[in-house]
Amino acid sequence: MSETQPAPRGGLLERLADGPVICAEGYLFELERRGYLQAGAFVPEVVLEHPERVTALHEEFVHAGSDVVEAFTYYGHREKLRVIGKEDLLEPLNRQALELAARVARTTGTLLAGNVCNTNVYDPADGRSHAQVRSMFEEQIGWAVESGVDFVIAETLRYLGEAEIALEVIKETGLPSVITLVADHQDQSREGIPMTQACKRLVDAGADVVGLNCNRGPETMLPLIGPLVDTVDVPVAALPVPYRTTAEQPTFQSLRDPHADAARLPNGVPFPSALDPFTCNRYEITEFASKAYAAGARYLGLCCGAAPHHVRAMAEALGHIPPASRYSTDMSKHAYFGTDESLLRKNQEYAAHL
Ligand SMILES: [Zn+2]
Question: Of the four listed, 125, 153, 156, 345, which is most buried by Cβ atoms within 10 Å?
Fold first, then answer.
């Protein structure tokens, strides 16, 4: 990766006007898989305990084609840190996550995004929780602004009301906002508002980009994209989890594995740490990216479960050639399955026996 700073290419909205923008997400799951983060509480302590791993993953995602470096403050909020008894780490963790991301963004010419997410304390009927949520967003977004973020992502929000609070706090900063809601089994917010209408209300309240992230795989997120594009007049975001969800099991929490012994799984189901057999291959991500773009989505990415090879597939599907494309699959020189003239014919003839 070059240490010299590439020429700036404008902010998020300028880049979206030029073409699709890719945002790699899924840091929580990928660092868990690599052995640096605990499934369950899912708190990004890795930011403080192994910052070099976070930096490396930022770099890998950019190498694979992400246009955005999202600071890893996901679930680094006050409520999550309270649950693990480490509220004292709240500010150091957030500031360090932002600094790690900023360094990679600066050296690669990518956009730096701040991040907030579902707080788990929002209750539509409890005004006190709204104030609590607002103050949680204010402290995290405040640190993001001080770090010089280009825009702020508020994501995996299943309550429209909570998303509206996040949007208000972001708007007070004057920075562009990307607000992505989560669709559970129904195509609606947790309050019961149809997803298209929920997103429209966010646009009416000033959101710059709206859409969906997490929970749903490509197959079950895709049908929501077209109607959303038809409903709002801002760029639409689509960032599924790269898992093979179905109409019957539309979210990655609802996936059931007929080959797995439920008794051996920590909570009896594949989510979150036994989802491996459902992982999409990179070509399924190529297909999703092409279809989502054709449906009008312009801010694309992947959430929990994503790895750099998925991000590269998405980037290539959208016409980008990231540095990692240097190593994209080329089978022509494979000893058994290749076509190159210089390969030994006897190996190609034997290929059917492999
Ligand atoms: Zn996710």
Answer: 153
Q: How far is the CA of 30 from the centre of ligand 1 (A)?
A: 11
Domain that holds residue 339: 330-354
**pLDDT score recorded for residue 6:** 52
345 in the same domain as 257: no
Measured in Å, residue 114 CA sits from the centre of ligand 1 at: 16
| DSSP notation for 232-256 | -SSPEEEE--SB---SSS-BTTS--
Distance 335 CA to ligand 1 centre (A): 39
Per-residue pLDDT, averaged over 216-228, amounts to 98
What's the CA-to-centroid distance between 242 and ligand 1, angstroms?
Answer: 10
Beta carbons of 66 and 25 less than 8 angstroms apart: no
| 2 part of a folded domain | no
Ligand 1 centroid distance, CA of 171 (Å): 24
CB 241 within 8 A of CB 224: no
Residues 250 and 345 in one domain: no
Tell me how far the alpha carbon of residue 302 lies from the centroid of ligand 1, in angstroms: 8
pLDDT at 7 exceeding the cut of 90 = no
pLDDT > 50? residue 301: yes
Decide if 149 is inside a domain. Answer: yes
Q: Is 246 a domain residue?
A: yes
The 8 Å CB, 24+ separation contacts for 290-294 are 290/317, 291/222, 292/221, 292/222, 292/225, 292/238, 293/20, 293/317, 293/318
The number of angstroms, rounded, from the C-alpha of 206 to the middle of its chain's C-alpha atoms is 22
pTM of the model: 0.96
Q: What pLDDT, in 10s, does the model give residues 260-272?
A: 999 999 999 999 9
Residue 110 is predicted with a pLDDT of 98
Facing residues of 309 across strands?
none
- Regarding whether 353 and 282 lie in a shared domain, the answer is no
pLDDT number for residue 2: 45
Instruction: Encode pLDDT of 264-299 as tens digits.
Output: 999 999 999 999 999 999 999 999 999 999 999 999
CA of 31 to the centre of ligand 1 (A): 13
Query: What is the whole-number distance in angstroms between the Cα of residue 241 and the centre of ligand 1?
Result: 6
- Cis peptide, bond prior to residue 272, ω within 30 of zero: yes
- Quote the number of domains for the chain: 2
